[in-house]
Amino acid sequence: MRVNWNYIKLAFLSVAVIALYGFADQRSKKRKVEDVSVKFVGDNNLYLTEDAVNKLLIQNYGPLKNRAKEQLVLNTIEEVILSNDMVKNAQVYLTVNGELISKIVQRKPIGRVEGVSKFYLDDLGERMPLSKQHSARVPIITGKITGRTLEDAYVILNYINEDDFLRKNVIGIHIEEEGNYQLKFRMENFVVNLGGVDNLNTKFKNFMAFYAKAAKDNSLEDYAIVSLEFNNQVVCTKI
């Protein structure tokens, strides 16, 4: 019987590769975490500090530095970080050098509610607690705060944030009642009665036309109220 040495060599090589891979894998798992770092992605305004993240991990998972890699469950560490109210998303991974890195995306506030309870409204329309580390410069929401009026405020804020002029100049939303919202501008004394959240595009288009003409005529200071709640028109009340 003729022996096919090529098959034997191939089988031996395969076993050797598998053995080396297993050895390397076991050795890698036994290596310890050399360093732990937290990286915030996106906004530089930190509502959560690196120290706070490390403290959260230690409280829930114990010390991570010098722990064997095989003892780590990365998904569990991510879940611990995501349990913090300031965190929108988190990714945890190990580098080949043994560094444990946590990449964190913070939640983004777009409005601040000033009522019996004080909190932010984030870019998903959810309640977000205030931070001791940083105060966001966002429009203040006052008045009759309910679940429905906050939903409407979220719609208004989303529209405002899509327009450069409105985003820079609207500093407040006051809720008179459901379907009756007022806007406060940074440099002007008048109040804008927006009405409800219907036909926002038409309402703001009319407002911008009024604002451009009044600015040209130097008459912006003459008005106390600018109403956009009536069909396709701007109704102004002078001081």
Overall average pLDDT = 87
The CATH homologous superfamily of the largest domain corresponds to: Cell division protein FtsQ/DivIB
Main beta sheet strand tally, sense and closure: 9 strands, mixed
* Count of the domains: 2
Shape: elongated
**Range of helix content:** 25-40%
Model regions low in confidence, pLDDT < 50 over at least 5 residues: 19-24
CATH A-level architecture of the largest domain:
3-Layer(aba) Sandwich
- For the largest beta sheet, what order do the strands appear in spatially? 6-5-4-7-8-9-10-11-12
| Structural class by helix and strand composition | alpha/beta
Give the beta-strand count: 12
Distance between the termini: 111 Å
The first-level CATH class name of the largest domain? Alpha Beta
Give the helix tally. 6
Radius of gyration: 29 Å
SSE order: HEHHEEEEEEHHEEEHEE
Which fold does the CATH topology of the largest domain refer to? Answer: Rossmann fold
How much of the sequence lies in strands comes to: 25-35%
